[in-house]
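Hey L., structure's done. Input below.
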Amino acid sequence: MALEIKILDFGDIELESSFLVLGRDCGRTRRVPVYGFLILGGRYPVVVDTGYRDNAIMATLGMRGLQFHENMIERQLANHGVRIGDVRYVLHTHLHIDHAGKDDHFSMSTTVVINRREMEYSVSGLMHPQYPKPDIIHLVERLHTPGALRLEDLEISGPIELLPGIVLEAAGAHTEGSMNVHVETADGIATICGDVIYDFNDQIVEPVRSFGPEEYQVTGNHGGSKRAEKAAIRKLMYSDARYLLPVHDKPAKIEGGQVVGRLDMAVPGPVSQSVPRRDWFPA
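Output:
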């Protein structure tokens, strides 16, 4: 089934640059977008990630939230003719503060879908305070409301087809329970990959402080090993995905393990920027 992905603009965040890419511009502030995704073309709309609760909550991490009226989830959905009550499933790549902050805008008849390991990880304290209390308490309320929460065990089950054309798979990086969402579009598979990748240019195209070709740079914010994060990026780059969609950077078009173009607010859609390959071994 050919589906289409619309990008939802939930505002921006200002944060320390090396939080995003390890060792990059330490102490300097960088402004990045916070995206969510709306999957259309199936039986009903599906949302992936819901952004952060409000500007004030980002200050608990020492970050600055830049969210305005036009970034509210109801308004972003309305831009595509969708009402919040039309959404059947909300999927989460993971539950960090900037990904699961507006689940309580959806009624209990909308099912939130997460990897069970991520629910466990969110209350472990290992990445506190990136899992804020109001967001996680709301998910516990869903746990005690039949049909409001669906938990997968993707590390054990392997990939699961949630709906025709939408497959969930354990990501293996960033947080212990992160998942990728593979979507079948008219132009190939598009993978929503959460925060496994923060920045295509500085992690993949010209990786900061790297020693050679395709030695991807990791983020400055991961709960597992650097080896696992590098491997998870490589798995994405050499997967069947034609497009990769992170939450804090524009989508990329992928061919042969290389970033060959960038897209704007819909996938599939026009490639708006070509990306030259880095010549690591000049003649």
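The two ends are 46 Å apart (CA to CA). The longest strand covers residues 4-16.

-- N.
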